[in-house]
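User:
Can I borrow your eye for a moment on a structure tokenisation matter? Would you put together a sequence-and-structure record for a protein of your own picking? Please set it down just below, with no commentary around it:
AI:
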Amino acid sequence: MGINRETIQNFRKSLRVLEREIARELESECCGVSLSQCHVLMEIREMGESTIKDLSEILELDKSTLSRTVDGMLNIGLVNREIDPEDRRFMKLSLTEQGKKLADSINEKCDSYYESVFGLIPQKEHSVIVSVVETIGKTMNALRKKGCTCCGGGENEK
């Protein structure tokens, strides 16, 4: 491909630091719920209500794994599950008041943390950073969907 190996190694080294920092921050941001539960909370909070099917597509998780996550959230009072009156085959998920409060708390903590991060970066670089992170995320997602992994090949390695 013509990409300098040293560039790739420096990128990977920087990415490892970023991964560790994000993992540390996520541990405190999720306020005692698992990362999966945290993602479900954020998605339902954003949408207002959802179904297992819709969440499984958005979060790219199989329905059985997601159902177990949601069951755990039901048990601790974060989520409501009701039969969809328009289609009784589907269950609508919404957040309880406790779930809304937790989601709002997580959003506030995350916003505050990343506001601090961006506060240390010159403002003229903010849009570039957001764009780069978005591009890397989308590209990695597309490669994964094509079957390309770091350990074993994909279509683009032929």
